[in-house]
Amino acid sequence: SSTENLFTVETSKSIFEEACTYIPGGVTAHIKYMTPHPIVMKEAKGSKLVDVDGNVYIDYLLCSGSLLTGHGHPAITEAVTNQLHDMGTTIFGTPHLLEQQMAKRVIELYNGIEMARFTNSGLEATLLAIRIAKGFTGREKLAKFEGHYHGGYDQSLISVNPTMEEAGDTKRPTPVPESRGISNYYLEKTVVLPFNDLEATIQLLTENKDEIAAVIMEPVQGGYIPATQEFMEGLREITEKYGIVLIFDEVKTGFRVSMGGAQGYYNIAPDITTLGKVLGGGFPVGLVGGRKEIMEITNPISSRDILSASVETNKEKNGNKDSVLFHSGTYYGHPTILSAGKATLDLLEKDGILDKTIERTMWLRQELEALYARYGVTMKTIGLGTIFNIVFTDKEILNYRDMQESDFSMRDKIDRRLLELGVYIKPLTRYSMSTEHTQEDLEKTVALHEQVLKELTNK
Ligand code: PMP
């Protein structure tokens, strides 16, 4: 077709090749890599990306979902510019008013958050959440779910994306390191749980109940496989019974499933919550918040006095029990970033815009499902709120292993052709929506899917 002839990414290719001289693999984060080479961008606005060869894409990656209000929203640009101008500096390195205003705002929105602290990224938020849980309970093990991602550090890089050979028993998954360089210590101290399998989860938690500090989870795995209501309720009940800290990692779901995150949707309060992505309005941010009693152990003055009874009984095991739980970082609570976050929350709370974006996401999902059905291709969309995924299977998808049985090669073929046609989705990743995706964008997306289907099915 003529479109095919017009599509070229030659400039991207040559920039990438030179980047490989200075940067291993040519990318500053694995997530930006794709074969045969990544596409290098030069501009973006609203729902669109423009690459260095001048190709325009409707963006469904949206910086891994961070950009819920699209690229370069004028209200965010203005807020950041004003903040820099009014403060006269980029950062104070001291307390400032916006910190408490933003903390208060998040506390009002999230069931499980009574006090909060900021970090620079989602990674740091979950890392800190786990340390707080260990400090609070005096226990050393972490339970996490197979296929759930919480950031790129040793403790969480276990069983995120294992092969089926490595993964072991479905009901008792083997802890698998995701990277070289991860100490055996973390494998020994991690219990891997099967998502959405309450019986097996209860069994594993019961076996390790005196050693597990926390269960950490993505309430919606990968942002697109929702926990069942029954699973969430069962998990809340069993963790409470055993005194295990329940951590909802809402870095993806925060402000995307509802303003109050997935915990608002399920109406369940975790003990600790982590946020990131949308909260920074496109700037790097993280937040860890939770029950007052737990969060107070990060208080540099009083943490000595309020350590839980369980820590007291573990005195011998934990030599440092009396010390403060360390939480600090040069840039934490950065005013420029919080001003972008504040502008983002203002935008999302205006005129029910989040609900409208969720409705438009549903519209796109339904149109795509109907389209594929018309072409006789077995496909379904799964997701919650403003994120979904396209899966080629007729089976129910409840966890990581179900996903592995879907047809990835079909998905890959379609994604690559869509890239050429102007839909930006990194092959095999989920679709994230923004408030700036117009009806026209969505209709065009459906039409381009139809073009790909025509080519693939010769219909
Ligand atoms: N937790 C979840 C659920 C995430 O999706 C991510 C990022 N994709 C992280 C933690 C890590 O966040 P960051 O990339 O900001 O470090």
TrEMBL record:
Keywords noted in UniProt: Aminotransferase, Pyridoxal phosphate, Transferase
Entry-linked SUPFAM superfamilies: PLP-dependent transferases
Pfam families: Aminotran_3
GO molecular function, one term: transaminase activity
Cofactor dependency: pyridoxal 5'-phosphate
Matching InterPro entries: Aminotrans_3, Aminotrans_3_PPA_site, PyrdxlP-dep_Trfase, PyrdxlP-dep_Trfase_major, PyrdxlP-dep_Trfase_small
Domain of life according to the entry: Bacteria
Similarity remark: Belongs to the class-III pyridoxal-phosphate-dependent aminotransferase family.
Xref: PANTHER family: GLUTAMATE-1-SEMIALDEHYDE 2,1-AMINOMUTASE, GLUTAMATE-1-SEMIALDEHYDE 2,1-AMINOMUTASE 1, CHLOROPLASTIC-RELATED
Official protein name in the record: Aspartate aminotransferase family protein
Species of provenance: Psychrobacillus vulpis
Source organism phylogeny: Bacteria, Bacillati, Bacillota, Bacilli, Bacillales
